[in-house]
Amino acid sequence: MINMVSFYCWIFGYICGSIPSAYLIVKAISKTDIRQYASGNVGSTNALRVLGPKGGALTLLGDIAKSILALALPAYLGAGRYLFYAAGLGAIIGHNWSIFLKFKGGKGVAVSVSVLTLLQPIAGIISILLFALIVWTTNYVSLGSILMAMSWPILLFLFKQPMSEVYFALLLFIMIVIQHRGNIHRLISGTERKTSLKKTENIE
User: Fold this and answer.
1) Average pLDDT over residues 44-63
2) What is the C-alpha separation between 163 and 81, in angstroms, rounded?
3) In whole angstroms, what is the distance from residue 147 CA to residue 160 CA?
C-alpha cells in the first residue's frame, strides 16, 4: 500500500512537472516556440533570454507554482516524508522530460530548488543567495545553478538533517550536473553563453 501511494505521488508530481511553463508563456507572449531560440532549452533562463526579465520572472513563477502543486498531494495525505521525495522527484523528472513535449524539457534547476526550499527552507534560501551572488558576479547562470545544487547536500549535512534528506539533495545535485553536461564543457573551454538580465535575444 505504501509503495502504491508513493507511486501515485510520483505520477502526480510528474504530471505537474510536465506542465511546460516556459513553452506556454513564451508561446502566449511572443507567439514563438522557445525551443527554436537562444539555447533551445525549455526553462526559465531561456525564457529570460527570449522575453526579458518580466517573461523570465513569469516563467520562474510558473515553475515554482507547479512545484508547490506537486507537493500538495503528499501534504494532503500527510503519510510520511518519503511521499514528498516521490512527488518532488516526479516533478523534476516531468520538467526535464515532459510528457507534453515528447519527453523533452528543461534542466530542472527552478523546480529542484523550489522543491528543496519547500522541504528545507533555510538551506534553500542560503543556496538561492549563493546562486544570486555567483550569477551577479559572473553572468553565468549555469555555474550558479551547479554550485547552488552542490551546496544542498553539504548544507543539509552541516545542519545535521536526516541522511535521507542529504541523499535526496545529493540526487538532485547529480541530476542537475547530468543536465548541465554541455554547460560544464563550455565553461571549461571558455565558450559558455553569458546571460544578461537587461536584454532579450534577437528572435526575428
Assistant:
1) 92
2) 12
3) 20
- Measured over the CA atoms of residue 144, residue 156, residue 68 and residue 83, the dihedral's sign is positive
The dihedral sign for the CA sequence 131, 133, 134, 135: positive
Cα torsion angle, 124, 152, 164, 180, sign: positive
Domain-embedded: residue 63: yes
pLDDT bin (cut points 50, 70, 90) of residue 69 is: very high
Cα→Cα distances 180→119, 145, 161, Å: 24, 9, 27
| Domains contained in the chain, number | 1
Residue 195 lies in a domain: no
pTM for the model:
0.91
Which domain does 14 fall in, by range?
Answer: 2-189
29-33, 38-42, 99-103, range with the lowest pLDDT = 38-42
Q: Is residue 95 part of a domain?
A: yes
In a domain, 197, yes or no: no
